[in-house]
Amino acid sequence: xxxxxxxxxxxxATLGALAELLTSAGFExxxxxxxxxAKKKIDSEGPDLLIVDIRLGPYNGLHLVVRERLAHPxxxxxxxxxxxxxxxxxxxxxxxxxxxxxxxxxxxxxALVRKLLADxxxxxxx
Length: 126
Prior knowledge:
Blueprint: E1 4-8, H1 12-24, E2 28-32, H2 35-45, E3 49-53, E4 55-56, E5 59-60, H3 61-71, E6 77-81, H4 86-94, E7 98-101, H5 106-121
Parallel strand pairs: 1-2, 1-3, 3-6, 6-7
Antiparallel strand pairs: 4-5
């Protein structure tokens, strides 16, 4: 079964590039250009992993991460940004999200996605 990734980014060029990269790596990809569309896609598509940009118009990606943690605490999330901010990074990590700065190296993203999805597939021994 192909694992599904939802990519949320308000920069359409980035959205397209990440979608193409992850599709070519064998993942099913769904995209959303903003917070509202992302909420709909999460509910309708049930992705296995989210990749969310920090800046999403009037919202930021942390709003989506907080919403996601309440509804699906087990789903991995990767936050991305082209504007490094230590405070936002700390908040993202506090909510269990990984954090990558743009430009993102393709190999690094694919490796992180595979690791997070593999970790999710392994049952906890706690």
